[in-house]
Specification:
8 helices, 8 strands, 273 residues
Amino acid sequence: MALTLDTRQRAMLQEMGITVWLPKPAATAPAVVTMAAAQRPAVAATAVETSPAPVLAPAVPAPDAGAPAAAVAVTAPTATPTTHTAAPAAAPAPAPEATPCAEWRMSPAVQAYPQATGGSADNAWLVIWECANPATPLEGDTGKLLNNMLRALRLHHSRHVWIASVQRPGQDDVPVASLPAAPVDWQPLTPCLQTCVQQTHPARVLVLGMHTARAVLGSQEALGRLRAQVHQIHHTPAVVSYDPAYLLRSPHAKPAAWADLCRAHALHPPPAA
């Protein structure tokens, strides 16, 4: 019984896994193969294609029998040079940040009115306060207020008005934004204060601000009690008053600050040694 199948029918049988055997002509390859048989040659062919071809050494021609024997030099294959990639340079270690000072510091005193021509060295003033710009203490809003206070006492005519700035522990230099920053020769408070008094020979010292007064006088009293008495700094009378920054925030305290300045102005210079 002959089994005649067209192409579509044979494909359906192959997908169903049914093997169809047909007579194989003598000189031709089988026309129908199973799905499994079709896959095996493909896999084998793929393996053959991906396997590396063997490298055959070049044939060296045999020397002529009549010629003298000679050494045959075989050149070894040249090794491929290995490229070494240089390791990236290590980034420089960041510079250590400056550690804020853990104690009060003081800058050398500067003249408040260096262009003035009057005044007496026996009636000199030394003003100590927290100034944002020690090199130009009368600049900025707080400096202008202090300048007005000193001018009210007509001290702007004296060459002997000195201003020294102090800085509390843990603070960095933060100058006024509108003024150029200048390096400050900060020194420990205690020895710098003594040196400053010896160099300026003030008749009185005006200390502005509670924190500054506590650091300079070595006291923990409230500002009201500090303002109510006359202190001694290296045998020089001293008066405590409000900080100009506080007066800008609290204008009602300006009359009391003016009274403190008048009390300091009335102090007599210390007797000559």
